TrEMBL record:
Pfam family, one: TUDOR
PANTHER family hit by this protein: EBNA2 BINDING PROTEIN P100, STAPHYLOCOCCAL NUCLEASE DOMAIN-CONTAINING PROTEIN 1
GO terms, biological process: mRNA catabolic process
Database matches in InterPro entries: SNase_OB-fold_sf, Staphylococal_nuclease_OB-fold, Tudor
An annotated GO cellular component: cytosol
UniProt domain Tudor: residue ranges: 65-129
Native species: Heterosigma akashiwo
GO molecular function terms listed in the Swiss-Prot or TrEMBL record: nuclease activity; RNA binding
Protein name: Tudor domain-containing protein
UniProt domain TNase-like: residue ranges: 97-245
């Protein structure tokens, strides 16, 4: 259900190999992030609608059908000095004892725990608009979870390489398990992709199963895959981070796709 929902919310982008310009909206960890597409006025249109909601109702909450997957308006203070404001949010989990909802702000990608009293129903026109932030994962990159070894390092390096920059994004369809866009990000001033940078630093490694899927679907990805393999060999030879004690790859992992 969540995979189908993610595919619907992403609009038409990612159905095939695509190139576009993006900026990072939020980073979840070293391999998962949210992107804003340059030239997409969806964020501005949604913002105008939420401003009208605030003008009509202020920042007072109102009863709404809170359940996992529900789309609601939820307050968030972005620290810009204007106080809490309404943003569109999808409910990820509920804590009935604490009367809070774990939500994902779908136009920016950040998450928060929000009291029930700080939510209200969305007007139909706002509920119908697609998310302004695209849920994405770095293609071919297997990143450790934040709580695992090198997880924080991977997230920090991704921020260093990608945050606050205009990036060229190539999308290789969607991940069949999660519905996320599978992307390769390039800073025009740096020859190597962001994906390669994380792997060459030894804080991430190649996701062999995903690369096999991508190569079968997109034969033109072979050059990118060769670059990832070269980056990983560099990390192994220099014993960078996760490779410092030798090879960390297990024998039961999916093999590289044999072209």
């Amino acid at each position: 259900e969540e995979t189908a929902q993610a595919a619907r919310e992403g609009g038409g982008a990612g159905a095939g190999e695509e190139m576009t310009t993006v900026r990072v909206a939020d980073i979840a960890d070293g391999g998962n992030l949210y992107l804003h597409v340059a030239g997409d006025d969806g964020l501005a249109r949604v913002g105008a609608g939420l401003a009208r909601l605030a003008a009509e109702h202020g920042t007072g909450g109102a009863p709404c059908a809170l359940k996992r997957g529900a789309l609601v308006a939820a307050l968030f203070d972005d620290g810009a000095g204007g106080g809490p404001a309404w943003f569109r949010a999808r409910v990820a989990a509920l804590d009935s004892k604490a009367k809070t909802a774990q939500v994902v702000y779908i136009d920016h990608g950040n998450r928060a725990a929000v009291p029930f009293s700080r939510t209200r129903p969305l007007p139909p026109e706002l509920a119908a608009a697609p998310p302004a932030a695209r849920d994405a994962r770095l293609a071919g990159v297997k990143a450790p979870a934040v709580h695992e070894d090198f997880g924080r390092d991977a997230g920090m390096l991704l921020s260093e390489l990608a945050w606050g920059r205009e990036l060229i994004c190539r999308a290789y369809g969607r991940c069949p398990e999660t519905g996320q866009l599978r992307v390769v990000l390039h800073d025009g001033e740096v020859p190597a992709s962001v994906n390669e940078g994380l792997i060459s630093a030894g804080v991430c490694r190649i996701n062999k199963k995903e690369m096999a899927q991508i190569q079968k679907q997109f034969p033109t990805s072979s050059e990118f895959f060769d670059a990832l393999k070269a980056s990983q060999e560099m990390a192994k030879k220099s014993r960078a981070n996760m490779w410092r004690y030798g090879d960390v790859e297990s024998d039961d992992e999916e093999p590289y796709y044999n072209r």
